[in-house]
Amino acid sequence: MVSRYRFVIGILITFIGFSTGLNLFPIGPITPLIITDYQINNSTAGLLTSIIFLVQIVFAIPLSTLVGKMQIKTMIVLATFLGAAPLLTFMATDNFSLLLLLRAIHGLGLILFYSAIGPLFLQWFPSKELPLINGATILASSLGLATSTFLVAPMSEIIKWEVVLSGFGAVLLLSSFTWFIFGKTTNIPSTNETISIIKRCWEVFRARNTLLISIADAGPLTLLTVSIAWLPTFYHETYGMSLIKAGNLMGFLSLSGILAVILASLLSSRMNKRRPFLIIPGIVTGFAGFAAILLNDSFVIHIAVLLIGFTCWFYIPTLMTIIMELHAKDPRRIALIIATLMTIGGITNFIAPPIVGAITDLTESFIPGLAIFAFISWSLAIGGILLPETGIGQIKRSTNNQ
User: Fold this and answer.
1) Are 384 and 216 in contact (CB under 8 A)?
2) Which of 68, 87, 209, 241 could make an SS bond with 235 (beta carbons 3.0 to 4.6 A apart)?
3) Fold of the 6-190 domain
Protein backbone atom coordinates (compact mmCIF):
# COMPACT_ATOMS: atom_id res chain seq x y z
CA MET A 1 0.00 0.00 0.00
CA VAL A 2 1.30 3.42 -0.94
CA SER A 3 1.54 5.69 2.10
CA ARG A 4 0.25 9.25 2.06
CA TYR A 5 3.33 10.22 4.04
CA ARG A 6 5.16 10.21 0.73
CA PHE A 7 3.80 13.74 0.21
CA VAL A 8 5.64 14.86 3.35
CA ILE A 9 8.80 13.18 2.04
CA GLY A 10 8.33 14.93 -1.30
CA ILE A 11 7.97 18.35 0.37
CA LEU A 12 11.03 17.77 2.55
CA ILE A 13 13.20 16.69 -0.39
CA THR A 14 12.08 19.55 -2.65
CA PHE A 15 12.88 21.98 0.18
CA ILE A 16 16.35 20.46 0.40
CA GLY A 17 16.63 20.66 -3.40
CA PHE A 18 15.73 24.36 -3.32
CA SER A 19 18.22 24.98 -0.51
CA THR A 20 21.05 23.24 -2.34
CA GLY A 21 20.23 25.30 -5.43
CA LEU A 22 20.57 28.47 -3.38
CA ASN A 23 24.11 27.54 -2.44
CA LEU A 24 25.29 25.96 -5.69
CA PHE A 25 26.42 28.89 -7.87
CA PRO A 26 25.86 32.22 -6.07
CA ILE A 27 29.49 33.23 -6.67
CA GLY A 28 29.19 34.42 -10.29
CA PRO A 29 27.25 37.67 -9.77
CA ILE A 30 29.51 38.78 -6.87
CA THR A 31 32.86 37.62 -8.27
CA PRO A 32 34.12 41.23 -8.73
CA LEU A 33 33.44 41.89 -5.03
CA ILE A 34 35.31 38.75 -4.01
CA ILE A 35 38.26 39.61 -6.28
CA THR A 36 38.47 43.09 -4.74
CA ASP A 37 38.19 41.92 -1.15
CA TYR A 38 40.76 39.13 -1.44
CA GLN A 39 42.99 40.84 -4.03
CA ILE A 40 43.00 37.73 -6.24
CA ASN A 41 42.86 37.23 -10.01
CA ASN A 42 40.04 35.85 -12.13
CA SER A 43 41.53 32.37 -12.35
CA THR A 44 41.79 32.06 -8.59
CA ALA A 45 38.25 33.34 -8.12
CA GLY A 46 37.04 30.76 -10.65
CA LEU A 47 38.13 28.02 -8.25
CA LEU A 48 35.17 28.87 -6.04
CA THR A 49 32.90 27.43 -8.74
CA SER A 50 35.13 24.76 -10.26
CA ILE A 51 35.93 23.26 -6.84
CA ILE A 52 32.40 21.79 -6.83
CA PHE A 53 33.15 19.86 -10.02
CA LEU A 54 36.60 18.79 -8.83
CA VAL A 55 35.07 17.35 -5.67
CA GLN A 56 32.53 15.45 -7.77
CA ILE A 57 35.25 13.98 -9.96
CA VAL A 58 37.23 12.69 -6.98
CA PHE A 59 34.56 11.71 -4.45
CA ALA A 60 31.25 10.98 -6.23
CA ILE A 61 31.80 7.25 -6.77
CA PRO A 62 33.53 6.52 -3.41
CA LEU A 63 30.83 8.32 -1.40
CA SER A 64 28.02 6.60 -3.29
CA THR A 65 29.20 3.28 -1.82
CA LEU A 66 27.88 4.46 1.56
CA VAL A 67 24.38 3.50 0.36
CA GLY A 68 23.57 0.29 2.19
CA LYS A 69 26.27 0.91 4.79
CA MET A 70 24.59 3.99 6.25
CA GLN A 71 20.88 4.58 6.81
CA ILE A 72 19.35 6.73 4.07
CA LYS A 73 17.92 9.14 6.63
CA THR A 74 21.32 9.54 8.28
CA MET A 75 22.97 9.95 4.90
CA ILE A 76 20.67 12.83 3.97
CA VAL A 77 21.13 14.46 7.39
CA LEU A 78 24.89 14.32 6.88
CA ALA A 79 24.54 15.55 3.29
CA THR A 80 22.53 18.61 4.26
CA PHE A 81 24.72 19.34 7.28
CA LEU A 82 27.86 19.30 5.14
CA GLY A 83 26.05 21.14 2.36
CA ALA A 84 25.28 23.95 4.80
CA ALA A 85 29.01 24.70 5.19
CA PRO A 86 28.59 28.11 3.43
CA LEU A 87 26.83 29.18 6.65
CA LEU A 88 30.35 29.83 7.99
CA THR A 89 31.29 32.17 5.14
CA PHE A 90 31.12 35.13 7.52
CA MET A 91 34.21 33.67 9.21
CA ALA A 92 36.21 33.69 5.96
CA THR A 93 36.41 37.46 5.59
CA ASP A 94 40.22 37.49 5.43
CA ASN A 95 40.84 33.85 4.54
CA PHE A 96 40.27 32.79 0.93
CA SER A 97 41.48 29.25 1.66
CA LEU A 98 38.70 28.84 4.24
CA LEU A 99 36.13 30.12 1.76
CA LEU A 100 37.38 27.60 -0.82
CA LEU A 101 37.24 24.81 1.77
CA LEU A 102 33.64 25.67 2.64
CA ARG A 103 32.69 25.43 -1.04
CA ALA A 104 34.43 22.03 -1.29
CA ILE A 105 32.57 20.71 1.77
CA HIS A 106 29.34 21.91 0.20
CA GLY A 107 30.23 19.86 -2.86
CA LEU A 108 30.63 16.75 -0.69
CA GLY A 109 27.15 17.32 0.70
CA LEU A 110 25.71 17.49 -2.80
CA ILE A 111 27.24 14.12 -3.68
CA LEU A 112 25.76 12.45 -0.61
CA PHE A 113 22.33 13.96 -1.20
CA TYR A 114 22.02 12.96 -4.84
CA SER A 115 23.39 9.49 -4.10
CA ALA A 116 20.70 8.96 -1.48
CA ILE A 117 17.57 10.27 -3.19
CA GLY A 118 17.33 7.46 -5.76
CA PRO A 119 17.01 4.70 -3.13
CA LEU A 120 14.79 7.02 -1.06
CA PHE A 121 12.32 7.63 -3.90
CA LEU A 122 12.06 3.91 -4.61
CA GLN A 123 11.02 3.36 -0.98
CA TRP A 124 8.22 5.90 -1.04
CA PHE A 125 6.94 6.48 -4.58
CA PRO A 126 5.29 4.12 -7.10
CA SER A 127 6.79 3.91 -10.57
CA LYS A 128 4.21 6.19 -12.17
CA GLU A 129 5.10 8.98 -9.72
CA LEU A 130 8.88 8.75 -10.10
CA PRO A 131 9.00 11.23 -13.02
CA LEU A 132 7.00 13.73 -10.93
CA ILE A 133 9.18 13.54 -7.82
CA ASN A 134 12.38 13.54 -9.86
CA GLY A 135 11.13 16.55 -11.80
CA ALA A 136 10.01 18.34 -8.64
CA THR A 137 13.45 17.91 -7.06
CA ILE A 138 15.25 19.16 -10.16
CA LEU A 139 12.78 22.04 -10.52
CA ALA A 140 13.27 23.04 -6.88
CA SER A 141 17.05 23.06 -7.35
CA SER A 142 16.67 25.19 -10.49
CA LEU A 143 14.44 27.66 -8.67
CA GLY A 144 16.94 27.87 -5.85
CA LEU A 145 19.73 28.52 -8.34
CA ALA A 146 17.70 31.22 -10.08
CA THR A 147 16.73 32.80 -6.75
CA SER A 148 20.31 33.09 -5.54
CA THR A 149 21.43 34.45 -8.91
CA PHE A 150 18.83 37.21 -8.81
CA LEU A 151 19.21 38.07 -5.09
CA VAL A 152 22.88 37.74 -4.24
CA ALA A 153 24.08 40.93 -5.99
CA PRO A 154 21.37 43.35 -4.82
CA MET A 155 21.47 41.93 -1.29
CA SER A 156 25.26 42.32 -1.26
CA GLU A 157 24.78 46.04 -1.87
CA ILE A 158 22.79 46.24 1.37
CA ILE A 159 24.78 43.85 3.56
CA LYS A 160 28.16 42.20 3.15
CA TRP A 161 28.30 39.41 0.57
CA GLU A 162 29.75 37.09 3.22
CA VAL A 163 26.57 37.53 5.26
CA VAL A 164 24.41 36.87 2.20
CA LEU A 165 26.19 33.58 1.47
CA SER A 166 25.93 32.65 5.14
CA GLY A 167 22.19 33.27 4.93
CA PHE A 168 21.89 30.87 1.99
CA GLY A 169 23.79 28.29 4.03
CA ALA A 170 21.42 28.84 6.95
CA VAL A 171 18.46 27.92 4.73
CA LEU A 172 20.11 24.60 3.88
CA LEU A 173 20.82 23.95 7.56
CA LEU A 174 17.13 24.60 8.27
CA SER A 175 16.21 21.99 5.67
CA SER A 176 18.59 19.60 7.46
CA PHE A 177 16.72 20.07 10.74
CA THR A 178 13.31 19.61 9.09
CA TRP A 179 14.48 16.36 7.47
CA PHE A 180 15.97 15.14 10.77
CA ILE A 181 12.63 15.72 12.52
CA PHE A 182 10.14 14.58 9.86
CA GLY A 183 12.14 12.39 7.46
CA LYS A 184 11.44 8.65 7.47
CA THR A 185 13.20 5.84 5.63
CA THR A 186 13.54 2.09 5.83
CA ASN A 187 16.91 0.44 6.02
CA ILE A 188 18.35 -1.09 2.87
CA PRO A 189 18.85 -4.81 3.58
CA SER A 190 22.46 -5.80 3.96
CA THR A 191 23.90 -8.34 1.56
CA ASN A 192 26.36 -11.16 2.00
CA GLU A 193 28.29 -10.30 -1.12
CA THR A 194 32.04 -10.44 -0.74
CA ILE A 195 32.79 -8.50 -3.90
CA SER A 196 35.16 -5.61 -3.28
CA ILE A 197 33.96 -2.05 -3.62
CA ILE A 198 36.45 -1.37 -6.41
CA LYS A 199 35.31 -4.43 -8.37
CA ARG A 200 31.65 -3.52 -7.90
CA CYS A 201 32.26 0.05 -9.06
CA TRP A 202 34.11 -1.24 -12.11
CA GLU A 203 31.31 -3.66 -12.98
CA VAL A 204 28.72 -0.88 -12.73
CA PHE A 205 30.87 1.56 -14.70
CA ARG A 206 31.48 -0.79 -17.63
CA ALA A 207 27.89 -2.11 -17.77
CA ARG A 208 26.23 -1.38 -21.13
CA ASN A 209 23.32 0.60 -19.70
CA THR A 210 25.55 2.67 -17.43
CA LEU A 211 27.72 3.64 -20.39
CA LEU A 212 24.68 4.47 -22.52
CA ILE A 213 23.14 6.60 -19.76
CA SER A 214 26.45 8.42 -19.24
CA ILE A 215 26.90 9.03 -22.96
CA ALA A 216 23.31 10.23 -23.32
CA ASP A 217 23.76 12.75 -20.50
CA ALA A 218 27.24 13.97 -21.40
CA GLY A 219 26.35 15.46 -24.79
CA PRO A 220 23.60 17.95 -23.84
CA LEU A 221 25.35 18.70 -20.56
CA THR A 222 28.49 19.90 -22.32
CA LEU A 223 26.47 21.87 -24.88
CA LEU A 224 24.59 23.62 -22.07
CA THR A 225 27.83 24.37 -20.24
CA VAL A 226 29.69 25.85 -23.20
CA SER A 227 26.58 27.78 -24.31
CA ILE A 228 26.31 29.55 -20.96
CA ALA A 229 30.08 30.07 -20.81
CA TRP A 230 30.76 31.31 -24.35
CA LEU A 231 27.63 32.29 -26.30
CA PRO A 232 27.38 35.78 -24.73
CA THR A 233 31.00 36.54 -25.70
CA PHE A 234 30.51 34.96 -29.13
CA TYR A 235 27.42 37.03 -29.89
CA HIS A 236 29.10 40.19 -28.63
CA GLU A 237 32.35 39.80 -30.55
CA THR A 238 31.01 38.15 -33.73
CA TYR A 239 27.49 39.56 -34.17
CA GLY A 240 27.87 42.85 -32.31
CA MET A 241 25.21 42.03 -29.71
CA SER A 242 25.43 44.03 -26.49
CA LEU A 243 26.63 42.15 -23.42
CA ILE A 244 23.40 43.03 -21.61
CA LYS A 245 21.27 41.55 -24.38
CA ALA A 246 23.48 38.49 -24.62
CA GLY A 247 23.29 38.04 -20.85
CA ASN A 248 19.51 38.31 -20.94
CA LEU A 249 19.48 35.54 -23.55
CA MET A 250 21.19 33.25 -21.05
CA GLY A 251 18.53 34.19 -18.51
CA PHE A 252 15.83 33.12 -20.95
CA LEU A 253 17.80 29.90 -21.54
CA SER A 254 17.55 29.12 -17.82
CA LEU A 255 13.84 29.96 -17.69
CA SER A 256 13.11 27.68 -20.63
CA GLY A 257 14.89 24.91 -18.73
CA ILE A 258 12.56 25.36 -15.76
CA LEU A 259 9.54 25.16 -18.08
CA ALA A 260 11.01 22.02 -19.67
CA VAL A 261 11.36 20.24 -16.32
CA ILE A 262 7.74 21.01 -15.40
CA LEU A 263 6.40 19.86 -18.75
CA ALA A 264 8.57 16.72 -18.88
CA SER A 265 7.53 15.69 -15.37
CA LEU A 266 3.84 16.05 -16.13
CA LEU A 267 3.97 14.33 -19.51
CA SER A 268 6.19 11.41 -18.53
CA SER A 269 4.04 10.64 -15.48
CA ARG A 270 1.10 10.11 -17.85
CA MET A 271 2.93 7.94 -20.38
CA ASN A 272 4.28 4.40 -20.22
CA LYS A 273 7.18 5.16 -22.57
CA ARG A 274 10.46 6.71 -21.45
CA ARG A 275 12.76 6.64 -24.49
CA PRO A 276 10.87 9.28 -26.54
CA PHE A 277 11.71 11.78 -23.80
CA LEU A 278 15.36 11.24 -24.66
CA ILE A 279 15.22 10.66 -28.40
CA ILE A 280 13.06 13.64 -29.44
CA PRO A 281 14.89 16.35 -27.44
CA GLY A 282 18.15 14.61 -28.33
CA ILE A 283 17.49 15.17 -32.03
CA VAL A 284 16.32 18.76 -31.57
CA THR A 285 19.19 19.87 -29.31
CA GLY A 286 21.91 19.30 -31.93
CA PHE A 287 20.07 21.33 -34.57
CA ALA A 288 19.38 24.06 -32.01
CA GLY A 289 23.08 24.16 -31.13
CA PHE A 290 24.14 24.60 -34.75
CA ALA A 291 21.41 27.21 -35.36
CA ALA A 292 22.57 29.22 -32.35
CA ILE A 293 26.09 29.59 -33.75
CA LEU A 294 25.65 29.58 -37.54
CA LEU A 295 22.55 31.68 -38.23
CA ASN A 296 23.12 35.40 -37.79
CA ASP A 297 19.50 36.33 -37.32
CA SER A 298 18.24 37.82 -34.06
CA PHE A 299 14.89 36.01 -34.09
CA VAL A 300 16.40 32.63 -35.01
CA ILE A 301 19.12 33.02 -32.37
CA HIS A 302 16.49 33.67 -29.69
CA ILE A 303 14.53 30.57 -30.71
CA ALA A 304 17.68 28.44 -30.88
CA VAL A 305 18.87 29.51 -27.43
CA LEU A 306 15.45 28.81 -25.94
CA LEU A 307 15.48 25.36 -27.54
CA ILE A 308 18.95 24.63 -26.15
CA GLY A 309 17.75 25.46 -22.65
CA PHE A 310 14.52 23.50 -23.12
CA THR A 311 15.98 20.32 -24.61
CA CYS A 312 19.03 20.21 -22.33
CA TRP A 313 16.74 20.11 -19.28
CA PHE A 314 13.69 18.27 -20.65
CA TYR A 315 15.23 14.79 -20.54
CA ILE A 316 16.66 14.89 -17.01
CA PRO A 317 13.61 13.77 -14.96
CA THR A 318 13.09 10.86 -17.35
CA LEU A 319 16.77 9.86 -17.34
CA MET A 320 16.74 9.71 -13.54
CA THR A 321 13.53 7.66 -13.69
CA ILE A 322 15.09 5.22 -16.18
CA ILE A 323 17.99 4.62 -13.78
CA MET A 324 15.57 3.87 -10.95
CA GLU A 325 13.35 1.62 -13.06
CA LEU A 326 16.26 -0.36 -14.49
CA HIS A 327 17.56 -1.21 -11.05
CA ALA A 328 14.57 -0.92 -8.72
CA LYS A 329 15.77 -3.93 -6.71
CA ASP A 330 19.34 -2.71 -6.32
CA PRO A 331 19.50 0.74 -4.64
CA ARG A 332 23.27 0.50 -4.32
CA ARG A 333 23.59 0.21 -8.08
CA ILE A 334 21.33 3.24 -8.54
CA ALA A 335 23.56 5.28 -6.24
CA LEU A 336 26.67 4.18 -8.15
CA ILE A 337 25.15 5.06 -11.54
CA ILE A 338 24.10 8.51 -10.32
CA ALA A 339 27.60 8.97 -8.89
CA THR A 340 29.04 7.97 -12.26
CA LEU A 341 26.90 10.65 -13.93
CA MET A 342 28.13 13.21 -11.41
CA THR A 343 31.74 12.19 -12.01
CA ILE A 344 31.49 12.38 -15.78
CA GLY A 345 29.44 15.57 -15.48
CA GLY A 346 32.11 17.07 -13.27
CA ILE A 347 34.79 16.22 -15.82
CA THR A 348 32.83 17.61 -18.79
CA ASN A 349 31.83 20.78 -16.94
CA PHE A 350 35.41 21.32 -15.93
CA ILE A 351 37.10 20.78 -19.31
CA ALA A 352 34.49 21.79 -21.92
CA PRO A 353 34.76 25.62 -21.61
CA PRO A 354 38.60 25.60 -21.73
CA ILE A 355 38.49 23.37 -24.80
CA VAL A 356 36.27 25.89 -26.62
CA GLY A 357 38.58 28.67 -25.49
CA ALA A 358 41.68 26.85 -26.74
CA ILE A 359 40.13 26.06 -30.12
CA THR A 360 39.03 29.69 -30.42
CA ASP A 361 42.57 30.89 -29.72
CA LEU A 362 43.91 28.46 -32.32
CA THR A 363 41.37 29.17 -35.09
CA GLU A 364 40.45 32.76 -34.14
CA SER A 365 36.78 31.76 -34.29
CA PHE A 366 34.29 30.49 -31.73
CA ILE A 367 32.38 28.48 -34.32
CA PRO A 368 34.59 25.34 -34.57
CA GLY A 369 34.70 24.74 -30.82
CA LEU A 370 31.00 25.42 -30.27
CA ALA A 371 30.09 23.28 -33.30
CA ILE A 372 31.95 20.31 -31.85
CA PHE A 373 29.76 20.34 -28.75
CA ALA A 374 26.60 20.93 -30.77
CA PHE A 375 27.45 17.74 -32.66
CA ILE A 376 28.27 15.85 -29.46
CA SER A 377 24.87 16.76 -28.00
CA TRP A 378 23.25 14.24 -30.38
CA SER A 379 24.57 11.58 -27.97
CA LEU A 380 21.27 12.02 -26.10
CA ALA A 381 19.29 10.73 -29.07
CA ILE A 382 21.75 7.89 -29.65
CA GLY A 383 21.57 6.84 -26.01
CA GLY A 384 17.78 7.04 -26.06
CA ILE A 385 17.62 4.75 -29.11
CA LEU A 386 19.97 2.15 -27.64
CA LEU A 387 18.67 2.08 -24.05
CA PRO A 388 15.93 -0.42 -23.17
CA GLU A 389 12.39 0.84 -22.62
CA THR A 390 11.71 0.92 -18.87
CA GLY A 391 8.20 2.38 -18.81
CA ILE A 392 5.50 0.78 -16.70
CA GLY A 393 5.06 -2.84 -17.70
CA GLN A 394 7.85 -2.65 -20.31
CA ILE A 395 10.64 -4.57 -18.61
CA LYS A 396 11.17 -7.02 -15.82
CA ARG A 397 13.19 -5.08 -13.30
CA SER A 398 16.18 -7.21 -12.70
CA THR A 399 19.68 -5.90 -12.22
CA ASN A 400 21.56 -9.10 -12.66
CA ASN A 401 22.49 -8.55 -16.31
CA GLN A 402 22.47 -4.76 -16.53
Assistant:
1) yes
2) 241
3) Growth Hormone; Chain: A; (1.20.1250)
